[in-house]
């Protein structure tokens, strides 16, 4: 059975999604969906262990060898992404579709869409075929539009529609890039594509293909200034959907950027010939500051978190733009660390919405006494966003600073530290509202239910645990970066 794990990783959620539509029984669908996410987490952990022991694990469908057949290829990098996506899904899915427009008795629609989104993201990460990347990306995107539209008010529908338009443009750009690469090489297999591109890399067609692919991926990743879909999508989606998407969707898009740059085209060509870092570095730095500044001025907690995500994406792309093994490792480890912190914070927003009925920051006055466990979770995850030692945020920023210093980029090091001060401002603003202001008169003092608190605290405590146990995250990220750069052209 273990030799079929790569196929089962994607088949389980994708095949279970239509099964949920047929079964329709709320409890049965819920249990089945949760079993699938837990099973996928177990499979991803097994694949991670296998990839670290024996190298790249290749699964050929129908035993057709590359480039004739379709294959899944699992190395340390995408195994790490598979673990992130599966872990977040397994933690947040038990909450279900509360705080959404899903009518009672129609919960199966939510679980079907969630599993399709989940399966699509896993497929993007695991496939060894560039056209399959596009197919799985569209599967996850179409399901994402549905999930966002399930938010509590009509603004969720508008946010989903806006994301649909922008996401379709991004997918079209990516498809054009893939088509141009196929025109030049006659193959869609990633490993074979990397070999055949060596003879035609500097042709105008390949350069245009790279430009189209990077724009398409950057839209999905919400790289500044292509980020405008993200704030509304994260703000108006149901809290569970916001937590899942913020922790997974942009991470998979970042993985795609890594794969195109390091595996397909090669870092030497992308950074030395095309000088992609000249574009990526200033955009990353701008995202770090603009995202954090925008977060400071928000009046809604979820919208604050959404703009904070734009800043965090800037940290990831900054690590990539440094064009070094340390920089790539810093970006990769931040995939995991940001997933824990931001997933936990969006679940905190769900707790607040459930009990307070609003995520407006002004309505969170006195939350420290009204919902002490929820407020404490916010503080701990918020400290991670700042980068306080003992949290995963510190691990990410230390790795990024180390990478910048290794390149003797002193100005970038200073800017990283200054951007952390901006994070301190918006986190302190939340702490001040929760602990230093009086609760509204007659406000109910009632904690969120365990169904919300347990997943929230799992992610929050994990953000502290992995802040100390860095070898299991930063060590894997360094191994992944070494493998990526070692295989680059």
Main β-sheet, in a few words? 2 strands, antiparallel
Order of helices and strands: HHEEHHHHHHHHHHHHHHHHHH
Q: Quick check: average pLDDT?
A: 89
Flag low-confidence runs: none
Number of strands: 2
* Structure class: mainly alpha
SS summary, helix count:
20
Large-scale geometry: globular
Strand portion? under 5%
Spatial order of the strands in the main sheet?
1-2
Radius of gyration: 21 Å
Instruction: Report helical residue fraction.
Output: over 70%
Span between termini? 35 Å
Q: Layout of helices and strands, plus pairs?
A:
Blueprint: H1 5-23, H2 26-54, E1 57-60, E2 71-74, H3 76-92, H4 107-126, H5 130-149, H6 155-185, H7 190-196, H8 204-221, H9 229-236, H10 239-265, H11 267-273, H12 277-296, H13 301-321, H14 325-356, H15 367-370, H16 372-386, H17 392-406, H18 410-435, H19 450-468, H20 471-486
Antiparallel strand pairs: 1-2
Helix pairs in contact: 1-2, 1-4, 2-3, 2-4, 3-4, 3-10, 3-14, 4-5, 4-10, 5-6, 6-8, 6-9, 8-10, 9-10, 9-13, 10-11, 10-13, 10-14, 12-13, 12-18, 13-14, 13-18, 14-16, 14-17, 14-19, 14-20, 16-18, 16-19, 17-18, 17-19
Describe the model.
The structure is a single chain. The chain is an all-alpha fold. Helix content is 76%, strand content 2%. The chain has a domain at 284-489. It has 20 helices and two strands. The mean pLDDT is 89.
């Amino acid at each position: 059975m273990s030799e079929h794990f790569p196929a089962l990783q994607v088949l389980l959620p994708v095949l279970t999604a239509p099964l949920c539509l047929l079964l329709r029984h709320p409890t049965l669908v819920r249990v089945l969906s949760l079993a699938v996410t837990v099973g996928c987490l177990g499979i991803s952990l097994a694949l991670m262990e296998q990839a670290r022991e024996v190298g790249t694990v290749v699964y050929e469908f129908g035993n057709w060898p590359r480039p004739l057949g379709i294959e899944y290829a699992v190395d340390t990098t995408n195994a790490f992404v598979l673990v992130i996506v599966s872990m977040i899904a397994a933690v947040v899915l038990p909450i279900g579709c509360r705080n959404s427009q899903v009518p009672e008795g129609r919960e199966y629609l939510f679980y079907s869409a969630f599993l399709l989104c989940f399966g699509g993201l896993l497929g993007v990460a695991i496939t060894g075929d560039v056209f399959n990347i596009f197919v799985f990306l569209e599967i996850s995107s179409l399901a994402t539009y549905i999930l966002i539209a399930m938010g509590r008010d009509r603004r969720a529908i508008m946010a989903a529609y806006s994301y649909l338009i922008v996401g379709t443009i991004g997918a079209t750009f990516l498809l054009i890039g893939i088509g141009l690469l196929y025109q030049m090489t006659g193959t869609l297999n990633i490993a074979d594509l990397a070999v055949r591109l060596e003879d035609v890399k500097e042709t105008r067609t390949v350069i245009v293909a790279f430009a189209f692919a990077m724009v398409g991926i950057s839209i999905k990743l919400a790289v500044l200034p292509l980020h405008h879909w993200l704030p509304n999508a994260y703000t108006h989606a149901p809290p569970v959907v916001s937590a899942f998407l913020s922790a997974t969707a942009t991470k998979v898009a970042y993985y795609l950027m890594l794969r195109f740059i390091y595996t397909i085209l090669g870092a030497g060509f992308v950074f030395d010939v095309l000088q992609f870092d000249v574009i990526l570095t200033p955009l990353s730095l701008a995202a770090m500051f603009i995202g954090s500044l925008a977060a400071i001025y928000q009046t809604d907690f979820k919208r604050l978190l959404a703009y904070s995500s734009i800043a965090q994406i800037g940290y990831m792309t900054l690590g990539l733009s440094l064009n070094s093994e340390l920089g790539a490792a810093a970006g990769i480890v931040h995939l995991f660390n940001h997933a824990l912190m931001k997933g936990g914070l969006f679940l905190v927003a769900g707790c607040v919405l459930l009990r307070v009925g609003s995520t407006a920051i002004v309505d969170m006055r006195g939350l420290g006494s009204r919902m002490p466990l929820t407020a404490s979770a916010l503080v701990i995850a918020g400290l991670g966003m700042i980068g306080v030692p003992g949290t995963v945020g510190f691990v990410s920023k230390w790795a990024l600073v180390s990478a910048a210093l290794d390149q003797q980029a002193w100005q970038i090091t200073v800017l990283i530290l200054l951007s952390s001060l901006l994070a301190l401002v918006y986190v302190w603003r939340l702490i001040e509202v929760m602990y230093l202001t009086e609760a509204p008169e007659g406000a109910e003092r009632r904690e969120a239910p365990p169904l919300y608190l347990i997943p929230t605290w799992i992610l929050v405590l994990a953000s502290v645990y992995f802040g100390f146990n860095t070898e299991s995250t930063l060590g894997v990220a360094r191994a992944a970066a070494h493998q990526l750069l070692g295989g680059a052209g």
